[in-house]
Amino acid sequence: MKTVKHTSDSRGHVNHGWLDSHHSFSFSTYHNPERMNFGVLRVLNDDRVSAGQGFGRHPHDNMEIISIPLYGDLEHEDSMGNKKVIKEGDIQVMSAGTGIFHSEYNPNTDKEVQFLQIWVIPNERSVQPRYDQKTIADLSEPNQLNQILSPNADDAGVWIHQNAWFHLGTFDNDTELNYQLKDANNGVYAFVLEGDVSIENQTLNKRDGLGIWETDNISLSAKKGAKVLFMEVPMNLN
Predict the structure, then answer these.
(1) Where is the Pirin N-terminal domain (predicted)?
(2) Which of 79, 147, 155, 182 would you call most buried, defined as having the most Cβ atoms within 10 angstroms of its Cβ?
(3) Would you say 31 is a known binding-site residue?
């Protein structure tokens, strides 16, 4: 087993006033050659957007882009004709494929929106662009890791063009469990959203991240009040 730990205060940070963002991996003006990605997990941004502000229309291609709101609402509009609002308890996915334009705004005038912006390198290039969103709140049983993303359209949660699985756990009791990886070539990047957890006997606090690979089983001990996201992704970029 190999691990890499990224504490919350070691992340890249930018504050544009309307946008306050922390980057777990190199992004925009933050460049760290030792933190370019974790396997095919290319971007993990922890974004806070002020009331009435947002990202103007901009392009993407050949990337799987996942948004998970943590607080507030996020309005999405794209060149496929979609205009949707996602909120806490939802997950959104966009396969940029051959190319797409989109914008993201906080439609509220009285509160900010907090969300995770996650980019995964796809296993197939130049696919037809696609948009989907689902409510995952009703999938979430407490004190376990609930699947919210997979490679399969018929599974729980959303799907992407990659051999990846995301699980989200919210704990209202002290809990110990084991996570079995779906593929021997994958690793897991665990990101703590709230509270305190121990993963493979390493203590993690709010907004800490831990990458684990070359194993088929990961132990998790979560304290009451913890919330953690497990992102299982291929480690090989090819």
Answers:
(1) 9-120
(2) 147
(3) no
Q: Are residues 38 and 128 in the same domain?
A: yes
Q: What is the pLDDT of residues 146-191, one digit of tens each?
A: 999 999 999 989 999 999 999 999 999 999 999 999 999 999 999 9
The CATH number for 175's domain is 2.60.120.10
**161 assigned to a ligand binding site:** no
Question: CA 229, CA 238: separation in Å to the nearest integer?
Answer: 25
Q: Kindly state the average pLDDT of the residues 59-74.
A: 97
Structural domain that includes position 80: 12-136
State percent of the chain over pLDDT 70.
100
Residue 219 clears pLDDT 80, i.e. is over it: yes
Rounded mean pLDDT, 58-72 = 97
Q: Are residues 128 and 162 in the same domain?
A: no
58 annotated as ligand-binding: yes
Has 167 been labeled as part of a binding site? no
* DSSP letters for the chain: -EEEEE-GGGSEEEE-SSEEEEESS-BTTB--TT-S-BTTEEEEEEEEE-TT-EEEEEEE-S-EEEEEEEESEEEEEETTS-EEEEETTEEEEEE-TT-EEEEEE---SSS-EEEEEEEE--SSSSPPPEEEEEE-GGG--TTSEEEEEES-TTSSSEE-SSS-EEEEEE-SS-EEEEEE-S-TTEEEEEEEEES-EEETTEEE-TT-EEEEES-SEEEEEE-TT-EEEEEEEES---
